[in-house]
Amino acid sequence: MDEGLSAPVGAPYAVQLRGIWVRLGRDAVLRGLDLDVAVGEAVTLLGRNGAGKTTLLRLLASALSPVRGEGRLFGYDLRDRRSVREHVHLLGHELGLYPDLTPAENLTFALRMHGQPGDVAAALARVGLEQAAGRRVRFLSAGMKKRLMLARLLLLARPLTLVDEPFANLDADGRQLALEVLQEARQAGCTLIIAAHEPELSLQVAERAVLLDGGVVQ
Ligand SMILES: Nc1ncnc2c1ncn2[C@@H]1O[C@H](COP(=O)(O)OP(=O)(O)OP(=O)(O)O)[C@@H](O)[C@H]1O
Question: What's the complex ipTM?
């Protein structure tokens, strides 16, 4: 986990959001949200179901645009999607997984898309998926898919790495593995934002909790 993790020189903040509004369908999900995250900081994003955690992560990954407000990531304007995408990676749920490809094929493809080298077999072994490496992703259990997400994190962590629910669906060993992988990303220099419903776990990696409620940080 050492590729491309250095933040741009002179950027004290990985994230600066001011007055961000995001609308999904008829509802405003984020309602004037402000957030600062320093370079190298690890923050856990908490909030009830539907509070807007995934929406905020998608905004930061430049998969959604605000209808109002300003944002900068490492000093780049949030609207500069190319620069943002070079520095940010979002890992979550079944995002970016191709169900008809095997875990090994998925990881190889993801590395190729990012123009990055990486040891797919080692990453799969690390997350305990070597036996399932040749099975199609659609036939994996929810916990196995989560382990595949952790393998992607090992291979594709970026200066700002956004992780959506890394502990969900995992057994006790898997949760421990998730903690170790997140710690490694942190030690490699990543700024981390971790959306989770298990603050007792995520606060083992993050030094700060941010509670999302009513479309703003409380
Ligand atoms: N594509 C969409 N179209 C319309 N509304 C959406 C869409 N995606 C999410 N929403 C709504 O946006 C709100 C925030 O959803 P989001 O997934 O960001 O919440 P969350 O905090 O991540 O929840 P959870 O803890 O359940 O994962 C919810 O009310 C949800 O119904």
Answer: 0.96
